[in-house]
Design goal:
- The chain is of the alpha+beta class.
- A 6-stranded antiparallel sheet has the order 3-5-4-19-18-17, sandwiched between helices. The chain has a 6-stranded mixed sheet with strand order 13-11-9-6-14-20, with helices on one face. The chain has a 4-stranded mixed sheet with strand order 7-8-10-12, with no helix packed on it.
- 37% of the residues lie in helices and 19% in strands.
Length: 493
């Protein structure tokens, strides 16, 4: 074979090789194009589905929940954005059950749990009642039950007044130190003036010595014994008494007829020494005790105004949040994972299921009944009592038909609003728990203000309970002075 034929053969081989490679590359490009076209076609097909399609999300309790397109709630104005956990959707049948058709499609805002039951335990509506939520100040229901269960509704805090000296009645002087001990969390201006008044009745207008308070002494909701002691010294002295203290004393007189009859002049005690925070020495003698209003009245005030300081102080009497939770767990028979507390007031992170809260309400209700009390004796009645429920459920037949406890945390857990208690209807009394979380607090309250009357209307309509409101100042004015048995200092009436 000559050189010409070899060259032509090589050219054909080269051309065939190039053709094969080109065909391979074209096939590869075509395959890749088909792959991307398939993806784009699939994406376009999916994009034709509704924008608010059902999305399954695994929550912290490992139970999936479905979030669907929000539906408008009648009579509830939108004040913020928050996805509902259980609107009408394919998951509603699983997450919600109700005996009232009108409640089946109600849109509940936020990450929420709702439970409504009759007195005998029949479920009116239930939605995510076994999920744990932040109960906010509904924790105070647990604190109230625990302290009342432990100490009794008629328990009184005692602030004791001691001395290591003697009284010179010719000069109205106590020659010695004056000691004050006690942990009354509600001890205030008017009670300090009451102490001054009783010292005057004993013939003491001057203390030639120091004022010593113990480290657990509290005045005007201050957590500092030193500040509380300084406030006590100023309030004892009529010349240094603040205008706020004077007003508090006048209100106290108007609400306590018994003490009013025992006051002739403006109570005042002058001290020559200083204030110290110390313990009691062994040589002191008890002059008298100032006893607070009964615990049931203190709880009523604390719950009505949702006072965090009082709630924490009351819980501390039992040993703190853990002890309060244990009382509830044991008596209401709820598991720790259903009822876990870090605070006695509801501040911070606490976790309670609506089902556990319902068990607490029932346990609390039975306790109150045994003591001839109802929820209205320890919780605010909407529209009638001052406090957090004063301007809610306060019109028409709804006035006086709801008694319960509110709860609000605007930042914790992305916004929390809760409400639980008892409603009265033409078909009887019903217990309810509403835990709204992760959303706009104002929107949550609007939902609660719509939902509770809706339930009442579906149960024959609201009816007011038998209740006559008593001013909070009058409740706390039920304090008194008590002398030890056989005391030589007793003042005769």
């Amino acid at each position: 074979m000559n050189a010409y034929h070899i060259t032509q053969l090589q050219k054909r081989n080269i051309m065939n090789s190039f053709t094969n490679k080109r065909a391979f590359l074209l096939s590869l490009v075509f395959a890749v194009s088909l792959f991307f076209v398939g993806i784009e076609t699939n994406a376009q097909t999916q994009s034709k589905k509704p924008l608010f399609q059902d999305i399954t999300i695994k929550s912290g309790d490992k139970r999936p929940r479905t979030i669907a397109k929000p539906t408008p709630t009648p009579l509830v104005k939108r004040t913020g954005s928050s996805r509902p956990t259980s609107p009408a959707s394919r998951s509603t049948a699983v997450s919600r059950r109700t005996s009232i058709p009108a409640l089946a499609s109600v849109s509940i805002p936020g990450y929420s749990g709702v439970l409504v039951e009759s007195e005998n335990g029949s479920v009116v509506m239930e939605s995510y009642s076994n999920h744990a939520f932040n109960p906010a100040s509904n924790v105070k229901v647990a604190t109230s039950y625990a302290v009342l269960k432990t100490f009794g509704p008629n328990f009184r805090f005692s602030t004791k007044v001691w001395t290591d000296g003697d009284i010179d009645r010719s000069t109205s002087t106590l020659n010695g130190n004056l000691y004050v001990s006690g942990r009354d969390p509600i001890f205030n201006y008017e009670h300090a003036v009451t102490v001054a008044n009783e010292l005057n009745r004993l013939g003491i207008r001057k203390v030639d010595g120091d004022i010593i308070v113990t480290d657990n002494f509290v005045m005007n909701f201050s957590g500092s014994a030193q500040r509380s002691g300084n406030s006590l010294v100023r309030t004892l002295n009529g010349a240094k008494r603040t205008n706020a203290a004077k007003r508090a004393w006048q209100k106290y007189l108007a609400n306590n007829a018994g003490i009013y009859r025992q006051v002739d002049v403006i109570p005042s005690v002058f001290t020559t020494g200083s204030l110290y925070v110390e313990g009691l020495p062994s040589n002191v003698k008890l002059l008298f005790s100032h006893e607070s209003a009964p615990l049931r009245e203190i709880v009523k005030v604390m719950m009505s105004y949702s006072n965090n300081f009082l709630s924490e102080r009351l819980g501390d009497m039992l040993g703190g949040a853990y002890a309060v939770a244990r009382v509830v767990q044991m008596n209401a028979r709820v598991a720790p994972f259903e009822f876990s507390l870090q605070t006695c007031s509801g501040l911070g992170i606490n976790r309670v299921t609506p089902r556990a809260q319902m068990k607490l309400l029932r346990t609390f209700r039975k306790f109150l009944s045994r003591n001839r009390m109802t929820f209205s004796d320890v919780m605010p009645v909407a529209g009638l009592d001052d406090g957090t429920l004063r301007r809610r459920f306060n019109t028409g037949y709804y006035l006086g038909s709801v008694v319960g406890k509110t709860g609000t945390l605007r930042r914790t857990d992305r916004g929390v609003s809760t409400l639980s208690g008892e409603i009265t209807t033409r078909r009887g009394k019903f217990l309810f728990v509403i835990f709204n979380q992760r959303g706009n607090v104002n929107r949550f309250r609007s939902f609660q203000n719509f939902f509770v009357p809706l339930v009442q209307n579906e149960l024959g309509g609201a009816t007011p309970m038998r209740y006559s409101p008593v001013a909070m100042e009058k409740r706390l004015a039920k304090s008194r002075i008590k002398y030890p048995r056989g005391s030589r200092y007793r003042v005769e009436e």
